[in-house]
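Team,

Forwarding the record for the chain on the shared tracking sheet. I've put the sequence and predicted structure together so nobody has to dig through attachments.
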Amino acid sequence: MNRHDFGERPHRANGSATGRDSEYTGRYVVLLDPNHQDSGIDELRSSAGIASVERVRDPDEGNVAELLERPDVSVLFEDLAAAVVEVRPEQRHTLVTTAEAEPSILAAEPERTVHALPITAPQQAPTEFFPAFRSDEGVVARHTRAEIAAGQGPAWNEDTWTWGLQAIRANLSHLTGHGVKVAVLDTGVDTDHPDLAGRIEATESFVPGETVEDGNGHGTHCIGTVAGPADPRRGPRYGVAPEARILAAKVLGNSGSGRDGFILAGMAWAVSHGARVISMSLGARVRPGELFPQTYEILARRALERGTVIVAAAGNDSDRPGRVEPVSRPANCPGILAVAALDKAIAPAFFSNGAINDQGGEINIAAPGWQVRSAAPGGGYRHLSGTSMATPHVAGVLALLSGAIPDASATDLVAALKAGAFPLTQPVEDVGAGLLQAP
């Protein structure tokens, strides 16, 4: 599967082109003090001339996707104190300087295009300058057949369980994740898939003009890994937590790409529905030395305070052993668990990114991400590779832990997850705490 950009889009009313070659949309994501949201919005209105603000109090209202598409409005998610704002190009600098001066504004960063993360091609570099404000500004190929074959490792018997479930010892666990809600923010889901239909608690699409039905396959595959049934219709078991309840938020279009604003909406929706875990097999490439996005970090901390753990794919931009690229955003946030991919030899997959950047750019844990079998739209199955495939393994194990210790805080769940990992001989920069293990 190749990476696709979000697709051709007309020039927005503010003059910013958001076509196929742009990683920036022209909008900004703004994080506000929850107790002083109006102050921040009023300052941005008066100084930077942001568009009329539509307040979203309930992410289930049904028109959120349309609001995020309109160039004449900014959207404020009151529950998260986060806004996606329209600003004219000549007012970007004013918006940032206003954010720096206004205490009720914690961060203002340009909205970016975000992609699903199976093995992919590099993104193009941005061609426009987008200033940003952070309240913590001081914080600082191809492979031959022989190389790929080396990653196959020992022969795994997958008659009953996929190799990934065996590697994380899910086949030895009696836990099921019964009733635990896991939100998967991705390309949607095949709601009619016979293995998944009974496990979907709620769905919502935040992609304008698209239903939650998965026209890509990436989201259905990830959801299957989280919560595929104990006795699938055909083939080995592939779901980690077969009795977890799935919240499927479509934040990436059928092309495999979306925007930060869609993801923000999906996060708000997931938290409002009581998600214990949010799984995001998506991201955008970062440069060596690039800081983590503070908008996502603040949202992750707020989610943790409410009992929700966020996990995200570390990215597939590397070409090991010669080249290792930094962990992608938003996985590079300290408050989000970054998941690396392992091959069948229980070694870092050649594409898996590593801890090149400091301050949040670390790998937290590693999980199976090579030739992973899971559900596919149309009622079938397919094998995919990527840190995208490793991430839902981690989300599933978090569901198992949550089911076993329902009163645990989100930070306790993270600590238990890391403590239970099997140490590996590879550097922590590549595998974090080690191989994911089911309790």
